[in-house]
Every structure is written in structure tokens, then in C-alpha cells.
Amino acid sequence: MTAKGNNSMQPYLGTLVEVKDLANEIKIFRIQLQNGGNEAFADYKPGQFAFVSAFGLGEAPFGIANTPERGPYLDFAINRLGSVTTGLHELGEGDTVGVRGPMGNCFPMEDFKGRNLIVLGGGIGGAPLRPVIQQVLDHRSDYGNLTILWAARHPSLLVFTEEYAEWKAAPNTSLHLTVDQPDEKWDHNVGLITELLQKVAPKPDNSVTITCGPPIMIYYVSRMLEEMGFSPENNYVTLEARMHCGLGKCGRCNLGEKLICVDGPVFNMAEVLDLKETFL
Ligand code: FES
What Å distances lie between residue 189 and 35, 83, 196, 235, 238, CA to CA? Predict the structure, then answer.
């Protein structure tokens, strides 16, 4: 897990070239960088994050939701939660934002080559997992089976629904969906992602798992994976949802001695599973 990123305080200007609803209160922002930003972001890795600023309101850290191979742009899935994200939600195509990064470590995609990947995303936690999926799909023969377990409280909160057809059509790839509260059109699984995990029952042999979602979901998924025979060293998580300042200053992302924004946001569960208070 290398790629610690660019700590420059200088934001690059970026143009919003696409803004669209991704799920209820979640939009995807596609940003084309200006003034040298393309060089800074030429080789960012799945799992890294960047700061996006709404001018006059401030900036916040978000996981980058695409790979550089997919195009000369950055995608961010942003939930409307506070003043910065509300300000961003009020912007539209053609508006300018600031972007700083890339930052943080990354998923060790090189080490994953030849192995089966089980990707577990809960709600907007699917956003930093999308580049993992894109990387595997774009280099399909480098990796083993890809099993995607995707969950949300309600169908309206599932992210990247327009891409499910692409994911399902890829060789050796399966997608399993679940929600806690179905609507009348829902015809997939109902229940928690841990129940779906039990049902799909992936095998631990030559496999790694990658999880992102609410901390409590990560905790119970990781516990269940251990019961299923997965070793914590092979269970990777990104804990970016716990970041606030993203700068190592506020101390709100502490994991024992570590800070998620400085030492992560990607960890394997062997590093963090004992820190129960982090998740519950
Ligand atoms: S988010 Fe503030 S110290 Fe890490």
C-alpha cells in the first residue's frame, strides 16, 4: 500500500464537465482539471482521495471514484451532508471548483493480480471501490474471479446502478445486490450485506476482500469473513468515511496510534480489527 500522494496545499482549478444524480442526495461530479492538475493526477491509484473545494465555503476530502485510465477527469460521489457538500450540490456543469491531491495510500492492486477479489460496498461506500472494479475490468485477465456484493438501505440509495450491466457482462464477474428496505419493484436480495455474504459464500482460497461502507458494516463484514476462513491480512478496507479535516490536524480519525488521513485510508483488517471502538 504505497502512493502517499501529493501534500501540496495548492488546489488546482477544475471544471465540472458532468454533474448528475447518482442516488438519493448523492451526486456524481466529473471534474476536468486545469492549470497543471492533469500532471499531478496523472497516475493516482484506486483508494486514494483528494480535497474538493466549493469556493467561499471550504473543502472536504473525498475518495476518487474512477481510474485515470477511464479518462482525463476525476469522478467524486458526494452526499449532501454539510455546508461544503451542499455548496457543491448547488453547482452545475461549467462551474469551477478547486481540487487538491491525490492523497493517501491505495489498494495494492499489483499484489492482487492472479487472486480472486470479493468487493463489498455499502451505500456511498461503493464510491472508492469503483476504481478497483474498473481496474479489474480493464485488465480482466490479470485477476481471478471478481465477486461484487453491493448493498444499501433502500434501492434509491444504491450507487452506480447504470454500470451494473457492464459489471455483470464482464468475464468471471458476478454482482449480488441487497437492500434492507425493498420497494415494490425490487427483485433482488433483502437483508444486510452480512446475510448476502453468507448466501454467496465466497471461498477464501487465493482470495482477497475489499470493503467500504459505514464503519459498523465494515466491522461485522470483517468478523464474518474471519468466521468464513478469510485471514484479516487478506481483508482490505478503506476507512475514508471517518475523515474530517483530512489533514492530520483534527484528530477525529484516530485509530489507536494511527490517523486514517495520514496512515490510510486503506488498511488491512489485521491492522485495525482490534480497535473495536473505531467501528461500534
Ligand atoms: S481527519 Fe482530521 S486528523 Fe485525520
Answer: 46, 35, 7, 24, 25
